[in-house]
Amino acid sequence: MATEQSTQTPATASGDTRIHNIGYRSYDGPRLGRSYARLSLYSQSLRGAYGLGRSVKSKVLPMLLFVVMCVPAAIMVAVAVATKANDLPVDYTRYAIIMQAVISLYVASQAPQSVSRDLRFKTVPLYFSRPIETADYVRAKFAALASALFILTAAPLLVLYIGALLAKLDFTDQTKGFAQGLVSVALLSLLFAGIGLVIASVTPRRGFGIAAVIAVLTISYGAVSTLQAIAEVQSSGDTAIAWIGLFSPITLIDGVQSAFLGATSAFPGGVGPSNAEGVVYVLFTLGLIAACYGLLMRRYKKVGL
Amino acid sequence: MYDPTVARLTYRALLGRRRALILGALPLLLIAISLAVRALAGADDQTAADVLGGLALATMVPIIGVIAGTGAIGPEIDDGSVVYLLSKPIKRPTIIYTKLIVAIAVTMVFSAVPTLIAGFILNGNGQQVAVAYTVAALVASIAYAALFLLLGTVSRHAVVFGLVYALVWEALFGSLVPGARTLSVQQWSLAVAQKVSGGDLVTSDVGLTTATVLLAAVTVLATWYAGQKLRSLTLAGEE
Questions:
Q1: A233·B47 Cβ contact <8 A
Q2: Closest Cα of chain B to A225: distance in Å?
Q3: Which among A48, A142, A256, A268 could bridge A232 via Cys, Cβ 3.0 to 4.6 Å?
């Protein structure tokens, strides 16, 4: 194809201006299209959330947090086996609540990693020059972070479950608890991923994104648990405690699972929301997830251009 | 030892645009919660101590310390613009010292002042609770700012490590392992607060002498080492 074809341009009379065909070819192979691009973005983001395919330094923190998340589960199993207990020391649903600091740190460190760097290095316009659209980018990132969180929170539950079966605890009982735990952490993953991404997508600065995410997660929890503790001392009733719980992500999940997933609440007094209040909790949680998705879509309607 | 231009630039980097929003939102939230608690529960010394100890000193001061401490130098190292600062004829320890002063000032203004206001709202400084926690917040501000400024010069993931220290070490391990409390800025500052309040509402696991010595040692060592780190700073490329 490199045959030289000369074209005489009529404007120049001298004839020394020519356009050469230097043999660029158009691509006529198969095009993998939008869904493939979305899948690639998803898998790359998911791998990136654990530092796979990135430098050794960026693997340290997510892997460390993953180990920190799983080790207590292994210890609990060991204790349960050694003492021949009839039950695990901690409920499946309670585990994520206990380890919330680790989960928050993971979201805070990985959500900005996932979106802030794209903004900072202005790679978002490059993504959108591919066949993906705003919705694809948002869905891929959201799904990737939620999956990463699900792996983080479900792995220790799996450790607990396998350990419980090896210790010959009651099969139906454990399976039911495990399933309830999985539903709860799935909800938690979606909620935390949404909140983390919404905050992180506002700033191109990674450090600032981390601080903002952690501030929202811990301060809201600190505020809610302080108010709940005071409401309990004042004995203004369990309803007040339950309604206050709506205002922080982790107590929201706590409320949902103690209302519908057979968990004992970590609220002060150990009284979770009643069924009617539980419905509000579920609606509020789902509404929050949807709102995060909506906000992300709005954020990326016009970006970096 | 103090360079006004560096200070001015650091103030602008810390309080410019959105950073000031998040820094201002936390104290406002604390004051709003104090108002709500006062309205719900009335003035009660124990409640006031719980809110100030649990929310203000344990959560808010470290987070503001992280934002101000690492924010004073971290972003500059991160985007490489620190070379323009380092190439000026200013001593590196002077740069650190100036940034430390700014970080301490910002942390104090955004954590100690709201603590005092919240304390007065909660119980009108009954049993010196408000003043005691304000003193604790002031003391903690100095140590946190120095510590997190050092982290900012050492690591590119300073914010994460700062938060790991503040939340996992002080809050999680501190509540489980008694020994971890001895090595916690929060407890050191509480020891000073205990001395101020004199009552039994504010208690610490560390003695006053130990706490003061450790606070001073941590602050001085962190500042000195941050200066040394800045003298031999290598700019890393992007990951």
A1: yes
A2: 9
A3: A268
What are the two backbone dihedrals, phi and then psi, of residue A8, each rounded to the nearest 5 degrees? -80, 120
- Chain B residue closest in CA terms to A223: B55
Measured in Å, how far apart are chain A's first and last C-alpha atoms? 37
Q: What pLDDT score does A47 carry?
A: 94
Angle subtended at Cα B71 by Cα B70 and Cα B77, rounded to the nearest 5 degrees: 80
- Using only C-alpha atoms, chain B has a radius of gyration, in whole angstroms, of 18
Residues B64-96: pLDDT tens digits? Answer: 998 889 888 888 888 788 888 888 898 888 999
Nearest to B135 by CA among B155, B108, B160, B153: B108
CA atoms of A150 and A154, how far apart (whole Å): 6
In whole angstroms, give the CA distance from residue B91 to residue B87. 10
Give me the residue label for tokens 């079966």.
A165
Rounded mean pLDDT, A104-110: 92
- Bridge partners (DSSP) of residue A18 are A8
User: Nearest chain A Cα to B156, which residue?
Assistant: A207
Could you give the CA distance from residue A237 to residue A267 in angstroms, rounded to a whole number?
13
- A211 and B22 within 8 Å at the Cβ level: the answer is yes
Q: Is residue A26 part of a domain?
A: no
Query: CA-CA distance, B100 to A178, in Å (whole number)?
Result: 50
**DSSP 8-state assignment for residue B127:** G
Nearest to B175 by CA among B22, B31, B58, B67: B58
Question: Mind spelling out the 3-state secondary structure of chain A?
Answer: CCCCCCCECCCCCCCCCECCCCCCCCCCCCCCHHHHHHHHHHHHHHHHHCCCCCCHHHHHHHHHHHHHHHHHHHHHHHHHHHCCCCCCCCCHHHHHHHCHHHHHHHHHHHHHHHHHHHHHCCCHHHHHCCCCCHHHHHHHHHHHHHHHHHHHHHHHHHHHHHHHHHCCCCHHHHHHHHHHHHHHHHHHHHHHHHHHHHHHCCCCCHHHHHHHHHHHHHHHHHHHHHHHHHHHHCCCCHHHHHHHHHHCHHHHHHHHHHHHCCCCCCCHHHCCCCHHHHHHHHHHHHHHHHHHHHHHHHHCCCCCC
DSSP state of B237: -
Examine residue A304 and state whether it is found in any structural domain, yes or no: no
Number of domains in chain A: 1
Instruction: Provide the sign of the torsion angle of the four alpha carbons A95, A97, A102, A105, taken in this order.
Output: positive
What ipTM does the predicted assembly reach? 0.78
Span A44-92, pLDDT tens digits: 999 999 999 888 888 888 999 999 999 999 998 888 888 887 788 888 9
For chain B, the 3-state helix, strand and coil shares in percent, each to the nearest 5, are 80, 0, 20
Residue A8 forms beta bridges with which residues?
A18
Cα A167 to Cα B82: distance, rounded to the nearest angstrom: 57
Of B46, B55, B29, B26, the C-alpha closest to B123 is B46
Q: Which two tokens stand for residue B54?
A: 């649990």
Q: Cβ of B163 under 8 Å from any chain A Cβ?
A: yes
Residues A157-191 have pLDDT tens digits of 999 999 988 888 888 989 999 999 999 999 999 99
Q: CB of A280 within 8 Å of any CB in chain B?
A: no
